[in-house]
Amino acid sequence: MRLPLSTLEVFNAIAREGSMSAAAQALGIKRSTVSHQLKSLEDQLGTALFVRTTRAINLTEAGRALMRASGPAFEQLADGLETARSAGHSARGELKLAAPEFAYQLLLRDKLVSFQAKYPEISLELSLTDAFSDILHEGLHAGFRLGGLVAQDMIAKSLTSALTSAVVASPAYLERHGVPEFPKDLLNHNCLGYRFQSSGQLAPWAFASSDGDYTVIPPGNLVANSVPVTIDMAMQGLGIAYTFREICEVSLGRSDLVEILPGHRVTMPGINIYFPQEYRSFIPLRLLIKHLQVDETARN
What structural domains and CATH numbers belong to the chain? Predict the structure, then answer.
């Protein structure tokens, strides 16, 4: 049986207001419509819901049973409608994001604390993955990736300027094994590899040359699916790591790492955030994007 929501709404209004006239006024409909809807519900249930006298209208046993069940349900439904009406239209609620580890390291790590201090009623859920997430299917609001090429039903917004590659090693490693002068020299070194979590493929190392960019997969005795792990192992002298220069700027500045082959750097697209068009007015997401863009502008 389909739920007779319109007649149940009338029934609850009569029980709440104490008369058909008051129920009609509360609902903004005619008294005759209230009477007709009540009769329709009683006919459907096969029982009277009110005892009607010239001076009052009172619930029957069946009416009291229905009121106990439907009253709280209609209150919850009203609350749900109000929640749906206000969801995403204020600086509160849940924001679910998918981000590759490099986006966390380069962009989010230093900015999430200040964002949540500014908007304490917005809760964040962060899923770290290098896959190009299916935002809608996975129940997410937005994702991060290099470049702005996204599906037709998605919107991409740039959050950083272009990124630069870097090949790095510790001073101790280079003292023991020498400094590579050309990318081909890496074939004689221990290179720390990165394996994509999503595809399982090893990430190639890209280099610039006078003939254009090219990629290689140099040999090594460690492969990890975490960029910070390869950088940490490089700092400890295990081998040479390939990463974004922006990730290891602090370590380079402290001389914990040394950049090698700087003449062969390649430029890569900056970090973009992408999201479904339906979320372009979602306030928590808009506030996060503004926060990240403002901080990036200030940094530059």
Answer: 5-86 (1.10.10.10), 93-159+271-299 (3.40.190.10), 163-268 (3.40.190.290)
